Batch of 4 targets.
Target 1
Amino acid sequence: MKEDLRQLSVEDLARELENSRAKIREARYQFAVTRTLENSRLIRNERKRVAQLLTIARERELISQRK
């Protein structure tokens, strides 16, 4: 999965990051307000995905600064 993320372009990384953040917001809303969150691990998994995406973006930024 991580290797698949590394193959994405900068625009695709940004899109995936926004999608993951939206999933987190919706899951938190479902848990806090409606108490109908089916998968309790969803928030944790999406937070990890956001961290992976941010790490990949930062690595690319540092590589471009070295050149």
Target 2
Amino acid sequence: MAGLSALEFRGQPGLALGGPDLEAAAQALSAALHPASALNAEPHGALPFSSVRGTFNAQEGQRAVWIVDVSTRDLPPATRPQSLDIALTTPPEAGALASVFLNDVLLGSAAPPPDGRLRANFAIPERLIALDNRIAVTLQRPAPVGPAQLLPTSVLRLAPAGAPSEFLALPPFFLDGLEVLVEAPGGVTAESLNLPFWVLRPLLPLRSPLTVSAVDPGTIPRPRGPFISVTGEPPAGSAPRLHAVNGRIELTDRTARLPAPPPITGPALIAQLLESDGRPGIWLRPITDHSPRFAPSGSAPRLDRGDAALLDERGAVLAWTTSPAVPPSPDPPPPTAAADAPSLVQSWRPPIAWGLWLAGLVLVAYAFVRPRHNRQPA
């Protein structure tokens, strides 16, 4: 049985791992130090602020600000942010107002109740979510009357995530494991892994287990889970919307969008978000089969919004969403016989007009012919 015990060594506190199974003891310690690991057991899904990076110190000024940073890499598998439950305490006072911002966009405001204990929920529009998110909670008071504090019991409410449609939605799917598929005829080397790890650096959660698989040139890779594939052929069961042909990017799907790419002066890659038999991942493909070896030399690319990107060796990214912003409207239905037939008003319009004209003519003639009895003699 694994055990943990507290001790003091040279005046400093510490923990000692004991028992016959030290690996189990280490896992128990890791679970205790990572609250997000136990989050998966919560039925409704909530990420406590205490398990992410943030400031929760009490503040006494007229204006107090607390900052909390949350990445999609912090989320449990297959989840997405849905709303914020903010818990804040302040001395009882009139005129105070708390405001909540996500990535510099106001989500809403609320006034603390008379007892100074505010608990409010703010919905998160999906369009505001980024790969790395900054939550700012501000409290504006007429005058400082005592310490106010954002409580670490505030939580980020989560909802089940559907199939990822943008790069930023991939990290929660990578949490339980990621397969790296590399086209390496002579076997996988450290050099052949530089490219996928360079692309994955902003997207991969630290705790994700990795599996590396070699793929023979010209064969179709077959991922067994979430993946990144650096291969000439797309993964099995996928439907890429773009292809590289003779150094040009071409559309495979006629409904996809393709922005005008910048001039390409060196080696470049297309990165696409794909599903291989329901398993999400990224397919990396050089734009030409005969270009020099792609050698990343800059910072890791920032794959965030979009489901396709053009990358160069310096990490520059042209990312976009291949699906059209407005889906094409269906062709209008052909007119039916009922639609072509005149309505009741339309069919009676000519007789009514003629009748009104004749009635007017008769009234005019009658006015001229009728003797004027009420005229007085001169």
Target 3
Amino acid sequence: MADLSSYEPLSEKIAAVNGSILILVGLTSSTSENLVIVQKAEETLKHLEDNVENVKQMAENGRLQPLLKHLVEGNFLVLLILKSIFQE
């Protein structure tokens, strides 16, 4: 899935699956002995970070690094979008 998520139309479909971001965040924070699964989940989440709605879902599930990155490095439009999303 990590390789597929690098292609934007497929990353949108992955993120649209109900609970997909929650599962990926859970995998990255697990103490799984299978490091390949953890690394692939991490890579997939990295590809999904470009979408502000995905960043919101990641933050809601305890993955705050993408939100902080957008707040620090993001342009004004990204900040306005994030603000509007969290005010809903």
Target 4
Amino acid sequence: MTAPAQGIYGTIPPDLAAVPADAVQFSPLMSGAATIETVTERSLASMMVLAPPGTLERRYVLALSLRALGVGGTLTVLAPRNRGGTRLRDELKSFGVAVAEIARAHFRICEAVRPAQLISVDEAIAAGGPQFVAETGLWSQPGIFCWDRIDAGSHLLAEHLPSLEGCGADLGCGTGYLAARILESQRVMALALVDIDRRAIDAARRNVIDVRASFLRADATTPLATGLDFVVTNPPFHAGGEENRALGLAVARAAAGALRKGGELFLVANRHLAYATVLREMFASVDVLAQDREFTVYRAVR
């Protein structure tokens, strides 16, 4: 009989824990990953998790991981001390498991064995799962960027978008807030919603019900199309909790490669990132459409 699978969630620092070679990846942020929500209960022999920083998302992942383990299966969870690590032990104990904990290299590392009976996992899964957010009118899920509110940058961009036309893309579409605004123009023929986060694409499918919309789970920094009339984006600028200006510029570069000559990019970025100089190296012209204390909206023409 085939031995139960080993699971992994996220990228485990190799100096902190050894990952089994046959481990199945479950992170919704990694291309080709399996879906932890559909794993049969008690089917995994072990699970390793780089815990997300958000409380609801972290408890959701821990609960799903424990549910997926067979009785006696081992759960190893790591998190930086300042990004949820100090809470791991108590959160795991709240599910009815005994926990051993060590500290190493600014991380907390917890190990637990799956008991026959778990407590409170259903509540944690419900709280961290897909849900309708009344305040935004959108389906979302903890872990998606700005999951329970409209990002101020996206709002500023939406308020200053012209009526677009032709074929375009929303790179880093999130739950589809900007896409819905774009599709208000009847002159838009097709819009590709692109995001690396599986949860965001799932939410966007529920929020954007339009035959002109297509959905693609992919890295928005990678060229995905050519000959587009427009690209709209609120690109990320953080990686692993640290500011990374290069991420937004990589999305802009992918947009430049996807646009036809004369095609337009509409991009919002934190004001202090000052993208204009680099954008002018990629585009024929760059203008500032709007600016407030935090954000700048750029229009760049290929």
